[in-house]
Amino acid sequence: MTILIFMNISNFLTLYKIKNQLMAGLTSSTIGRKYAMAFSALFLLVFLVMHLSVNMLSVFSKGAFDEASYFMGYNPLVQFLMQPILIFAVFFHFIMGFVLEIKNRKARPVKYLVNGANANSTWMSRNMIYSGLVVLAFLVLHMYDFWAHEMSYKYFPGGGDSQDIERFWIELHEKFADPIRVAAYVVAFVLLGLHLAHGFQSSFQSIGARHPKYTPFIKALGTWYSILIPLGFVFVAVFHFVTQSHH
Ligand code: HEM
To answer: Angle, nearest 10°, between helix axes 30-60 and 2-28?
Structure first.
């Protein structure tokens, strides 16, 4: 009996220790940070597929795009649950990205004299912070272009008629009349592709999804994803540019 009680207490203590280590680990250890980073990345990878799917509608049908945009813009679940989660994920991802980069630099303040990096890492993996910074700069422009306008339209007095459900396609189409904006977007999409080329498979590695049987598949999927998704965005931007009626 005493032994049993003792075992239970020690079990409980061990569990308590593990729980504490896990909680502390998630926020303070490099492994924890990598996990958290990877989860936010996986979430963003799913978001990009959804975002591109809606954008693609604008190529095939104005009506379908307007309807989808209206749904995304006015459905309370999307607006007040998904959107805050997305904003959190985006902020979390880039702040954590900086933190990891700084920690990594501190861990190796002196650069390797002979950097045989090409032999064991790719250019993409070594430059995630730079490709990420370009995507971040793009996001600032992008939020200014679409999101800020939409917020002021919807939530500020005199912003516009919220019942106008046919405005979305025209707004998007008109944005891409400007060749400089189209060029800036395309450059950002190329860098996004490079970011994803390493990021996709890396996020799976970080959560421990590594297996001789599945890793090659994940890598191949990552390569396709990082080519097709940015190419899709390029296609949408260029499509609207070349189909402008006034040039
Ligand atoms: C041709 C390419 C793209 C087009 C035409 C486009 C268009 C749009 C539009 C119309 C919105 C909706 C704004 C609103 O009504 O709230 C939006 C939101 C957004 N886009 Fe894009 N987008 C493109 C590429 C991208 C890429 C590559 C990313 C990420 C790297 C991205 C990230 C976002 C984010 C984070 C939002 C905010 C979603 C929200 O919370 O409302 N977009 N985009």
So the answer is: 60
